[in-house]
Amino acid sequence: MPWPTKKLGEIISFEKGKKMAVANDGEPYIGIDGLRTNLYAVYTQEKNGVRCKQDDVLLVWDGAHAGTVGTGLRGFVGSTVVKVLHHNSLENKFLFYLLKLFQEKIRAAAQGAAIPHLSKAFINNLKIPLPSLKIQKQIVERLDKIAEAQKLQGELIQKADELFQSLLHQELNPAGKDWEMKKLGEVLEYEQPTKYLVISTDYKDEYPIPVLTAGKSFVLGNTNEKDGIFPKEKLPVIIFDDFTTAIKFVNFPFKVKSSAMKILHAKKNEADIRFMFYKMLTIKFSHDQHKRYWISECSNLKIPLPSLKVQKQIVAKLSAAQEYKSQLLAQKSKLK
């Protein structure tokens, strides 16, 4: 039997928080930051405000983070936040998960260019499924277990990352080791990316070839162009942003959007490309001027370089730590 549907406006209403004087102690005063972090950071000694209990559902109404949903906090509600009141046909935590489900739609419907505000009319007209309270509680129990598993997985991922960073600096520390000093340009050859530039930016997820940047976004999109694809037999490589000095390790065929990068290859019998990538992660390249850096500066930096055999041993340890983190990330994605 299908669940009945209701418009949210038929079963919820909003009580806007108030502006109150902040203090170093007193009762928690919950604003945007508190709701986003689920931590108490601001307090008030005033008593004439909108109180919320720990199981109340709160919603950021104004500002860049409008639409953020939270629960689990008690105190006074800040002026940019609302307390969501509801009919007794709704269980508090079920309402919280419902609003989380519609969070992106609610944000997208916010009004105002400079300071966005949520649209009450849009929220009130959202149609939601409304099972019985018994079923709501069963759903909440399942979602709580998933959220707890995600939290645990997140903690494991953080520890895996800490392990990798610790290993990175431990294994690449040259102290007490007879490693030869080499310039980066002596063991890494560069290739200009010109022949791999994408022609069209009409990217689609179903296209087979990723278009890369060395910047934070890494994959800009996918293309179906068949010419000018970086060949598999020349992989793996490091792509180096010539202006920001950002680096990415690449082991799959690709095209690029910009010519403002160098494609770096390790010289055979001298360097392992993944070792060089790990080593470059530990270098703080200077990039405070708007200029190209690889040829003029970075290629001339000297690094301690162990034998190729030792490089591969170090790579094996660091890659195992990264693989462990990748497995944890894959497991976490399945919990969504």
From TrEMBL:
Pfam families registered for this protein in UniProt: Methylase_S
GO molecular function: DNA binding
Residues in Type I restriction modification DNA specificity domain copies: 3-158, 177-332
CDD domains: RMtype1_S_Eco540ANI-TRD1-CR1_like
Name of the protein this chain belongs to: Type I restriction modification DNA specificity domain-containing protein
One example of a Gene Ontology biological process annotation: DNA restriction-modification system
Domain of life, per lineage: Bacteria
